[in-house]
Amino acid sequence: MSSLGSPLDRHEKIALSASGGKDSTACVYLLRDQLDRINVYHLDTGDLLPEMRESVARIEAMCPHFVRIETNVADWIGVHGLPTDLLPYTSHPVGRRMGQEKTPLVARYDCCWNNLMLPLFQRVHDDGCTLLIRGTKAVDMPRLPATDGDTAYGVELYYPLLDWTNEQVFAFLALKGVKLPRVYNYVVNSPECARCSAWWGEGRSTYLKKYHPELWAEYDARLQLVIDAVAPSLALLRHEAGVT
Ligand code: SF4
Fold first, then answer.
1. Are 151 and 176 in contact (CB under 8 A)?
2. For residues 87 and 106, is the Cβ–Cβ distance under 8 A?
């Protein structure tokens, strides 16, 4: 791919965020001839699937300027609570102050922000990068909170896959002969954290149970804690709505 007229022409210090998933891997291959001038950042929360770790290692081997950022999501959860897709009022700071919470829970985006998004962006910013390339696509969510060309804290975002579909990404990687982690035989988007107790739509349970029973046991135990924590509020909601 030629960089002629691309955002890469306007920047000296360039970052690419690589999770090891299909989209960021596609970015790495798309920009392969530019990798000698790109810092490729990977954030490891300490809870990657083993096959995702292998995918990251393959990316690392391609990238002369590979930067690994490590956080510890298990420790963070131990302090702040399990992430959940349904947060009862008891887990709001006010509910906590009132002693209403039994199992500490946090909203999924609070956990992702603190363990994934912020540490990576902070490092990119601290390293003086002014362009951040990400594999985000318009089809990934109904509305992108930040998009291609936006600038925050002096860092411009560049989404080369903005208008791609998932099928195009898979086809592009197949064309390049890229070996994707086995998890992609089961899901369209790979999980960021194997034992995450939120992001229920990812459908991790079947996969973990089959290929990683020990991880599944921990994952399932976390889900049971979340179920127990949200059940009282759900029961009240159903009763109030007259749902039997
Ligand atoms: S994927 Fe789950 S465990 Fe990992 S940072 Fe996000 S909410 Fe937290």
1. no
2. yes
β-pair partners for 126: none
The alpha carbon of 75 and the centre of ligand 1 are apart by a number of angstroms equal to: 12
The pLDDT tens digits of the residues spanning 158-172 come to 999 999 999 999 999
Residue 2 lies in a domain: no
| 1 is a domain residue | no
List pLDDT tens digits, range 94-134.
Answer: 999 999 988 999 999 999 999 999 999 999 999 999 999 99
Which whole number is the average pLDDT over 177-188? Answer: 94
Number of structural domains, the chain? Answer: 1
Question: For residue 112, how far is its CA from the centre of ligand 1 (angstroms)?
Answer: 5
CATH of the domain at 157: 3.40.50.620
Residues in contact with ligand 1 (CB, 6 Å cut-off) = 45, 73, 83, 108, 111-112, 115-116, 192-193, 196, 198-199
> What is the C-alpha to C-alpha distance for residues 29 and 134, in angstroms, rounded to an integer?
13
